């Protein structure tokens, strides 16, 4: 299962990185051949992953200043399609993310954890695989669902975030059962 998710994540990175074509007759330069990573590439990947890990460290300790400390001024944060929090997509800039998303999460959930279990890095992209565990304040329902997060890091700052998760299960936890 872990192998399948990792392969899917690499496919997602490749799909997001491929240039669009204009249809039949559109010619593109041949794809670059794979190269062996240099020690500098590996160091860059570690640094990029560490930049992203700071966000999760901040969430885990409730330190929003730490969680947002590596956000670029113009960061674009996109919640998964059909997510209960996609209503304000995309969130642009730290203030909009904190007031429009993080404050809502803090106010609506007894607890909400995002725990990564694996990081995959290539160039300026980091994919994190993990699970959300949470308990909704109003309904009292709990969730334990997987996530995939795709981060872009440029010059040590996070410039974009894209979430993929089970939005049906997420919404169900927030919905009061009919009596």
Essential attributes:
6 strands, Nuclear Transport Factor 2, Chain: A, single chain, 179 residues, 37% helix, disordered N terminus
Element-level helix/strand string: HHHEEHEEEEH
Q: Look at the structure and give the mean pLDDT.
A: 82
Give the helix tally. Answer: 5
What is the radius of gyration?
18 Å
Task: Report the major sheet.
Answer: 6 strands, mixed
Determine and state the CATH class: Alpha Beta
Distance between the termini: 38 Å
Strand order of the largest sheet: 2-1-6-5-4-3
Structure overview:
The chain is of the alpha+beta class and 179 residues long. The protein has a single domain, classed as Nuclear Transport Factor 2, Chain: A (Roll), CATH 3.10.450.50. 37% of the residues lie in helices and 32% in strands. It has five helices and six strands; from the N terminus they run αααββαββββα. The protein has helices at residues 2-17, 39-61, 64-67, 94-108, 167-174, and strands spanning 71-78, 91-92, 109-122, 125-136, 142-154, 157-165. The longest helix has 23 residues, at 39-61. The chain starts with a helix and ends in a 5-residue tail after the last helix.
Q: What's the helix and strand layout?
A:
Elements lengths: L1 H16 L21 H23 L2 H4 L3 E8 L12 E2 L1 H15 E14 L2 E12 L5 E13 L2 E9 L1 H8 L5
Parallel strand pairs: 1-6
Antiparallel strand pairs: 1-2, 3-4, 4-5, 5-6
């Amino acid at each position: 299962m872990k192998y399948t998710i990792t392969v899917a994540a690499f496919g997602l990175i490749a799909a997001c990185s491929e240039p669009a074509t204009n249809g039949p007759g559109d010619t593109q330069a041949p794809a670059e051949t794979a190269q062996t990573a240099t020690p500098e590439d590996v160091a860059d990947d570690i640094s990029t992953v560490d930049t992203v890990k700071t966000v999760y460290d901040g969430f885990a300790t409730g330190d929003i200043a730490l969680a947002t400390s590596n956000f670029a001024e113009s960061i674009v944060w996109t919640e998964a399609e059909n997510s209960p929090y996609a209503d304000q997509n995309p969130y642009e800039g730290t203030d909009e993310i904190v007031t429009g998303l993080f404050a809502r999460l803090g106010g609506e959930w007894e607890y909400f954890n995002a725990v990564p279990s694996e990081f995959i890095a290539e160039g300026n992209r980091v994919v994190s695989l993990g699970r959300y565990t949470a308990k909704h304040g109003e309904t009292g329902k709990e969730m334990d669902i997987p996530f995939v997060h795709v981060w872009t890091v440029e010059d040590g700052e996070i410039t974009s975030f894209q979430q993929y998760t089970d939005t049906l299960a997420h919404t169900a936890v927030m919905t009061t059962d009919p009596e």
